[in-house]
Write a structure and sequence with these properties.
The chain has helices at residues 24-38, 51-59, 64-72, 75-82, 87-99, 106-119, 121-129, 132-137, 158-167, 183-187, 220-225, 237-249, and strands spanning 2-3, 44-45, 211-217, 230-236, 253-259. The protein has 261 residues and is mainly α. The strands form two sheets. The protein has a three-stranded antiparallel sheet with strand order 4-3-5, covered by helices on one side. A two-stranded antiparallel sheet has the order 1-2.
């Protein structure tokens, strides 16, 4: 049997909260909502359900946050979003699934790259669920939900465009697209267009035809050997995502991205 967990991702809904004396029907709504949010609207087979964690939630042995953690640490979540996707896609989806928003900056993404590289998968997941932001936004018993599609104190206006970009189109099922959607706009601190129009005259739209200078420092080992550790590459917007990934694979650190005039 297959549980259909898809829903209109852009529709605002009241947060679901597990309260005392919740009925079985209400509990099932909460369980379904957690699966839908954390698994990115993935179709879920009955055999994939975490029956033990569901029982713990039903019995009060774990909170909704504990159930979210169980789903996030499961082999199913890893197979959908970790093993099959790029590291940047994995991180931007973690922000979406657990904090209900997109990454705010390249620094924020880099911090989570470092957490994963130094401490591993479980620590990367826990860094969201154990954060003050999660506690203040959802607490122990509210199901995480998108926050970037409405005005939220502390989030930039650009979060609306970025969250909408993560929610719409193929992202209605997050496992259907394994490429990072926001890496270029975040790294270059650019606005994220909600829907680029189709131009038949070959004209450039927004930032897509521009060139950018990426300044980065070589990794520490190389820096001790070379007199100059700073390097610069000039790339088109369409090349930025791949270039940034290559720079990080080299162990280098991006210092600045500026638009070529």
């Amino acid at each position: 049997m297959m549980a259909n967990l898809t829903a209109s991702a852009t529709v605002e809904m009241e947060p679901l909260e597990l309260r005392p004396n919740t009925t079985e029907e209400e509990l099932q709504q909460i369980i379904t909502a957690v699966y839908r949010q954390v698994l990115g609207n993935q179709y879920l087979m009955e055999s994939d359900r975490l029956t033990s964690a569901e029982s713990q939630l039903r019995n009060g042995d774990i909170t909704v946050r504990g159930f979210v953690r169980a789903v996030a640490q499961s082999s199913l979540y890893q197979s959908l979003f970790f093993h099959s996707a790029s590291q940047y896609r994995f991180i931007e989806l973690n922000f979406k699934h657990f904090l209900g928003r997109p990454p705010q900056s390249q620094q924020e993404v880099s911090e989570h790259v470092q957490i994963y590289n130094e401490e591993g998968y479980a620590a990367e997941i826990n860094s969201y669920l154990d954060s003050n932001e999660y506690a203040q936004s959802f607490g122990e018993n509210i199901v995480p939900s998108p926050r970037g599609i409405r005005s939220v104190v502390g989030l930039k206006n650009e979060s609306f465009n970025r969250m909408f970009s993560l929610l719409r189109g193929p992202a209605n099922n997050d496992s259907s697209n394994n490429n990072a959607r926001l890496i270029s706009s975040i790294a270059a601190n650019l606005a994220t267009p909600i829907k680029p129009p189709t131009l038949g005259n070959g004209a450039n739209y927004d930032n897509t035809g521009k060139r950018f200078r990426i300044a980065f420092s070589s990794k520490q080992g190389a820096a001790r050997i070379n007199k100059f550790s700073r390097q610069e590459w000039v790339v088109r917007y369409s090349q930025m995502s791949k270039t940034i990934q290559n720079i990080h694979k080299m162990g280098a650190k991006i210092l600045k991205i500026t638009e070529m005039v």
